[in-house]
Amino acid sequence: MKKVLACASLASCLAFSPLVVSHSKGDMLVRVGLSSAQPDDASSNIVVGTDLGFGLGVDGNSQLGLNFAYFISDRMNIEVLASTPFKHDVNFAAPNPLGTGNQLGEVTHLPPTVTLNYYFSNTSSSFQPYAGIGINYTLFFDEKFTEANQAAGLADLSLDNSLGLTAQLGFDYMLDKTWSVNGSVRWIDIDSEASFNLSGTPGRVDSINIDPLVYTISVGYSF
Ligand code: NI
Q1: CA 209 / ligand 1 centre spacing (Å)
Q2: What was the pLDDT predicted at 96?
Q3: Separation of 166 CA from ligand 1 center, angstroms?
Q4: Sign of CA dihedral 114, 116, 122, 127
Q5: What's residue 147's pLDDT?
Q6: Smaller CB count within 10 Å for the chain: N or C?
Q7: What one-character DSSP code corresponds to residue 46?
Q8: DSSP three-state, residue 148
Q9: Distance 222 CA to ligand 1 centre (A)
Q10: Rounded to an integer, what distance in angstroms lies between the CA atom of residue 221 and that of residue 94?
């Protein structure tokens, strides 16, 4: 007997059918949202000829987050995280001896990340929490000192790219089989080192731990 004949109306059918709304093997999921990267920053001291006795600080930044996931099983996906470039202010961690203000400069980076995620819930549940681990490559570019610092002789700022681990916790809340709302918190191990020069004297910061927590809220579309 066709199932539709057992239902008096579409509404009663929906009310009595078990809803299978979660992800399944072979699904593609695209998410778009807002990502906020908050560095847990710490650095070694700035050295220009001598150790200046203090380091750098790195501010947070928010950007458009883009995210693509492919389900290799009902409970596991491979996720590629992209975003528009994050721009972080870099500050002196102590009063600036050059007298050119607190801000040292600005760096821009892209954090492409691949993560393997595992979903915990029963596949008929609309709340779908997951945990994942993966690898991040952070590409720094367009590093520059503020104009006041350039005028004071600082030049050629460069930060090394970073390869590191990432881990995250997140959830999809399934509005239906196609649309979902997502929230996640991701930790990324981003370590770098900087080089520059001050009026021709080479300078460096040997260790910059940026290690941000990245908070993301997004809307997902499955197909
Ligand atoms: Ni680190």
Answers
A1: 5
A2: 81
A3: 10
A4: negative
A5: 94
A6: N
A7: P
A8: helix
A9: 34
A10: 46
Nearest to 60 by CA among 31, 79, 38: 38
Amino acid at 119: Y
Measured in Å, residue 140 CA sits from the centre of ligand 1 at 16
Ligand 1 centre from 123 Cα, in Å? 36
State the distance from the centre of ligand 1 to the C-alpha of 49, rounded, in angstroms. Answer: 26
Q: Please determine, for residue 22, whether its predicted confidence score (pLDDT) is greater than 70.
A: yes
**The length of the chain, given as a count of residues:** 223
What HEC string does 194-213 produce?
A: EEEEECCEEEEEEEEECCCE
Query: What confidence tens digit (pLDDT) does each residue in 146-198 have?
Result: 999 999 999 999 999 999 999 999 999 999 989 999 999 999 999 999 999 99
Query: How many angstroms does the Cα of residue 125 sit away from the middle of ligand 1?
Result: 36
**Distance in Å, CA 191 to ligand 1 centroid:** 5
**b/e per residue, 92-102, with b = 16+ CB within 10 A?**
bbeebeeebee
pTM of the full predicted structure?
Answer: 0.83
